[in-house]
Amino acid sequence: xxxxxxNPVFRIVPVFLLLCMSVPMLAASSGSSKSARAHAHKAVxxxxxxYTPENGLYRTTGWWNSANAITALANYxxxxxxxxxxxxFANTLHVAQTAHGGFPGFxxxxxxxxxxxxxxxxDVYDLTGKAEYLQAAGSIFDDMQKGWDxxxxxxxxxxxxxxxxxxxxxxxxxxxxxxxxxxxxxxxEQRQKYLAWAQKEWVWFHDSGMINGQHLINDxxxxxxxxxxxxxxxxxxxxxxxxxxxxxxELNKAAPDPVLPETASSIALSAIDxxxxxxxxLHELNKAHTGGxxxxxxGVFSRNLMxxxxxxxNDRYQAFARTNAESIWNKDRDAADHxxxxxxxxxDLADASRQSSALDALVAAGVLNSKQHR
Length: 374
Description:
Elements: H1 8-47, E1 51-52, E2 57-58, H2 63-80, H3 86-95, H4 111-128, H5 131-144, H6 168-183, H7 188-207, E3 221-222, E4 230-231, H8 238-254, H9 259-274, H10 294-311, H11 315-331, H12 352-368
Antiparallel strand pairs: 1-2, 3-4
Helix pairs in contact: 1-2, 1-11, 1-12, 2-4, 2-12, 4-5, 4-6, 5-6, 6-7, 6-8, 8-9, 8-10, 10-12, 11-12
């Protein structure tokens, strides 16, 4: 029996079948979101065992990692509508910069460190609405912009105030902070100032050559010929593929341009394709996994993919988040709910950078696969 398009049966049957197929898909996604949220609740309890009220930082990890832990904590609080950790944010803002080993105003010799703290306080501002957090981010940005240099590579921020080097991460962070502040400015003059910096940084970054032919971002530039800097071909770390996603979302919000989300999508999908194993679990191409730096990277990608999906939803982002969250919990966890570096397993060791990075992935899965993102 054949049906014409005019026949009502032709229209009803496919719709009915689609609805039948969509019910288990929606249920599975909802279940995944609930599981990720429950797992994030356990993960954040473990993370906070490393928090030190006396200095507002996290034991077992470094200065910039603590900024990322604060960011993960803010995103968890937003997802769960929790006010439990508001005293933690206030304590860290006022204690970390002055306690032993801290840096007044969150200013030190590394522009990337400063960028991480600026983004942490912007995230806490979004959560609380308290101006002191946004003011802290603005003050940090004022110092970051002093690192802009045109004598080498025609622009861009230096990595350090003491040693020369122009890398992707500090420039991605500078772009993100500038665009984020533009979107949160209270006056047109402030907004224009931050937006001008964001657009200037993006034009330079886009033309720098750090985005390679695979739509992945290499670690930095070769400065052997300062007049003609080139991609240094160094590792495509996961966090370099992540920070740019949040940056372009913020820049597109401040000054809409269809090229920006298209570029973000191409980088996100390329990272998923090239930096995941055969099971779809994120990993670094470089074998480095010791110290406090590299274990932080993958979580940065996960949370920025969450930001991209919030603005431009994509089923592949959501599936990626589910896969990684499930793998972390099932294959990269010890009996005390410590989460390690190898998201595909096995569990290696516990520290605050590993825990906060994995928490980023759990929160991303909880948000990306919730009802408001379907």
